[in-house]
Write a structure and sequence with these properties.
homodimer, 385 residues, alpha/beta, Rossmann fold, 2 domains, 15 helices, 8 strands
Chain lengths: 385, 385
C-alpha cells in the first residue's frame, strides 16, 4: 500500500425530504447564488423545495450551466457573484452544474485571468466561496470531491482542475429527484461510476486488500442494481443505491494508497470536446479497448477483476482476462451504452485529430505508469473502432 | 435505505514515516499536551519521532492513560491542560488513549462536574480542544470517529459518549508502529473491527446494497489478512491492511442509512468493567451467543452473511445460519480469542451481576429493534457460558 493523505469534509444529507435541511446548513445571513442548468429543477419540484428551505435569505440566480460546463458561461456567473456580493453558492443539478459551481467559487475570488486556474489545474487557487449542492443526477461524484472538469469550446479543450478549497460543504442526495431523469442520464449514472472505480482499481497490485475489496463492492453493487434502477424509474431503493454508488466511486476513499490510471477519462474528454459524446458514452467506448491494449501491464488485476467481480474462474488466464473485458462490454451494452466508435458514426479518420488534441493538452504520458503515450492512445482508439 | 447525515472531517495520514507530517498539521504556535499510556511509545521510537515533528512548540506531557481509560485519570489530565493553557492535544497510543483524549478535550472546556458529560452521552459538549492522534494500536476505530468510552472503576461503570466536536483533526496511521505490539493486542485488532462491522451489518435488510457489500469487504479483508498480520509481525502489507480495516470499520461510512445493533458491545462493556476482560475478548464471547439467541430476527442477514462472507451455500437455511456462526467462532478462536465465558473462568454465577449493571446503566432496550431486554441479555449470557 502506498502512503496517502485522506480528508473529505463534505457533509452528505441523504434521503427523501432532505432538501429541507439546507435551512440548517447554509448560514442564515448568507447571500446565496443558486446555480442550475436548463431548468429541469423547476419541473420536478426541486426548485420549490430549495426556495422553501432558503427562506428569507437573499438569493440571486444563475441558470443555464450547460452539460460539460463552458468556461465563458462560468466566468459570467463568477462576475455576477461578485456584482451581487454573494457569500454562498448553491448548485442544483448534476456533475456539470456542481463542477461548474466549483469553478465559479474559485473564479469569483481569483485575481487575473480565470483560465489560469485551468492551466495550473487549480494549484493556484488560494480562496473560494463556500458552496453546497443538491444533486439531481448521480454520476460524476462531484458532490463529494474537490475536482472539476471545465470545457472551453472555442479551443476544443476539456480540462480538469481541483483544490482542497473546492469540496462542497454539504450535498443533498434525495433519490426521488432522479425519478424524472431521462433514461440516457441514468445510463450515464451507471457507466460513469463504474469506470471511476475501474480507473482506481484496475492497475497493478500494491497489497491494498481492503481498497480492492471496497472497489469490488461498488462495482458489484452497480452490476446488481444499475439495470434495475433503469428498469424501475421510481423505485426508491434502486435509485438510492445508484446515487450512493456514484458518490462512493469518486470521493477519494477507494483510491487511497493505490495507483490510479485515468487514461480512459483523459482520452474520453477529447471525444466529448471534439464530437459531443456524453462523458459516460466516451468511457464505455474507450475502457474496453484500453484494457485490451494494456492487458499485459494490468494482468494480475484483470484476473482478480474477472474472478471477483464477474465470477469467471474457468479457462486459461488469457481467456479469463478476455471474458472479463467482454463481460464489461456486455454490461455497458445491456444498460444502453454502446462500446464502439462506429456506434457514434466515428471512424479511423478521427484518431489523428484526437491524438493531436491529447498532445496539445500535454496528455502524452497517461496511465498508472505514465506510459500511455500518443502511440498507445492511438492503439487504444484503433481497438475501439 | 434509511435517511442519513454523514460527515467525517478527520484527516488520515497513512504510511511509514508519516509521523513527521505532524509538523505541518498542528499549528506552529500551539501549546501542545502529548497524551499517552504506559510508555511503550518510548521503546518503539514513536516518542522520538513525535518530539522531532513537534519541533520547538511548547509541549506538556500527560502519561499513564490506562487501557479502558479511567474517568479520574482523565479529569486530572483535563486539569493539567487548563493549568498549562494547552491549546492542542496530541494522543499517542491505541483506542484507550484516543478515547481518553476525546474526554480530556471536552472536559478541559466543560463547566461543572465532568461526569455530566458521560451521563448525557456527550450531548452537553459545547466546546472541545482540538486534537490529533498517532495511532499505535489498530482496533477501536477511535482515530477516525467522534465516539469514546470511559471507565469509572469506583462504580463499575463503562459508558460511551460522543460529540461532533470530538473528531480528531488528524490521525497518523504508520503500520510500522504496530510491529512491537504484543500478540494479544493484534488479536484485539482483528476481533474488535470485525465485531464493529457486524454490529452495523447483521441486523435486517433495508435495501442498502452498497453498504452491505462494503461491510462484507471489510469482514472478508479481516478474514484474509488478520491471521497473516498475526503470523508475520513485521510484514508491512498485512499490518497496513489491518490498520486500515480497523479505521474503516468504525468511521461511520458502512453504518450510513442502515439499522445498527451494538448490543454485543454494551453487554461486553459490563464484562470488562466487572471482570477485566479485554474489550475484544468480551466481543468474541458475546457475539456468537447473541447471534444464536436472536437468529430469528436476523435471519435474512445471517443467511447473506453465511453465503457472502463465508461462502456457505449448502444445507437448510437453519444449517447455513448455524454454519456461519460456527465459522465466526472458529475465526475468533483461530486468531486467539476464546469464545466462551468459561474460557475466562466465569460461570453462571456472574450473569445476575452483569444484568444488574446493564439495568443500572439503562441498557435495558438494546439492539436494532430495542428489544434486547434484560431477559434477552440473560439468555445471551447463558448461551455464552
Amino acid at each position: 500500500m502506498k502512503n496517502f493523505s485522506f480528508k473529505n469534509p463534505t457533509q452528505i444529507l441523504f434521503g427523501e425530504g432532505q432538501i429541507a435541511e439546507i435551512a440548517n446548513v447554509i448560514p442564515a445571513d448568507a447571500r446565496v447564488m443558486l446555480i442550475y442548468g436548463g431548468g429541469s429543477i423547476k419541473g420536478n419540484g426541486v426548485y420549490g423545495q430549495i426556495q422553501t428551505a432558503l427562506g428569507d435569505r437573499i438569493v440571486t440566480e444563475f441558470a443555464g450551466v450547460e452539460a460539460n460546463p463552458e468556461f465563458t458561461t462560468l466566468c459570467r456567473a463568477a462576475d455576477k457573484a461578485r456584482e451581487h456580493n454573494v457569500t454562498y453558492l448553491l448548485a442544483a443539478g448534476g456533475g456539470s452544474v456542481i463542477d461548474g459551481t466549483k469553478f465559479i467559487a474559485a473564479a469569483a475570488c481569483f485575481e487575473g485571468d480565470p483560465w489560469e486556474i485551468m492551466l495550473k489545474g487549480g494549484r493556484n487557487i488560494e480562496q473560494a466561496l463556500p458552496f453546497g449542492s443538491v444533486l439531481t443526477l448521480p454520476a460524476t461524484g462531484s458532490e463529494m470531491n474537490s475536482g472539476s472538469v471545465v470545457n472551453r469550446s472555442e479551443i476544443k479543450a476539456k480540462l480538469p482542475f481541483g483544490s482542497p478549497l473546492c469540496y462542497p460543504q454539504f450535498s443533498v442526495l434525495d433519490p426521488t429527484t432522479t425519478y424524472t431523469l431521462p433514461t440516457r442520464q441514468i445510463i450515464n449514472g451507471v457507466v460513469d461510476p463504474f469506470v471511476h472505480v475501474v480507473e482506481q482499481y484496475l492497475t497493478y497490485p500494491v497489497g491494498a486488500d481492503l481498497q480492492d475489496r471496497m472497489a469490488e463492492a461498488v462495482l458489484s453493487s452497480l452490476i446488481a442494481t444499475g439495470p434495475k434502477a433503469l428498469e424501475f424509474r421510481d423505485n426508491y431503493e434502486y435509485r438510492a443505491n445508484l446515487m450512493w454508488c456514484a458518490t462512493m466511486a469518486l470521493n477519494g476513499l477507494i483510491g487511497c494508497g493505490v495507483p490510479q490510471d485515468w487514461s480512459t477519462h483523459m482520452i474520453g474528454h477529447e471525444l466529448t470536446a471534439l464530437y459531443g459524446l456524453d462523458h459516460a458514452q466516451t468511457l464505455a467506448v474507450v475502457l474496453p479497448a484500453n484494457l485490451r491494449i494494456r492487458k499485459a501491464d494490468k494482468r494480475e488485476k484483470l484476473l482478480q477483476y474477472a474472478e471477483r467481480v464477474w465470477g469467471i474462474t474457468t479457462g486459461t488466464e488469457d481467456e479469463r482476462i478476455e471474458q472479463g473485458i467482454v463481460a464489461t462490454e456486455q454490461f455497458f451494452q445491456k444498460v444502453g451504452a454502446p462500446t464502439r466508435l462506429r456506434d457514434y458514426q466515428l471512424g479511423d479518420e478521427v484518431i489523428g485529430t484526437i491524438i493531436k488534441q491529447l498532445e496539445s493538452h500535454q496528455m502524452v504520458k497517461l496511465g498508472e505508469k505514465r506510459d500511455v503515450t500518443p502511440e498507445v492512445s492511438t492503439a487504444i482508439l484503433r481497438a475501439a473502432l
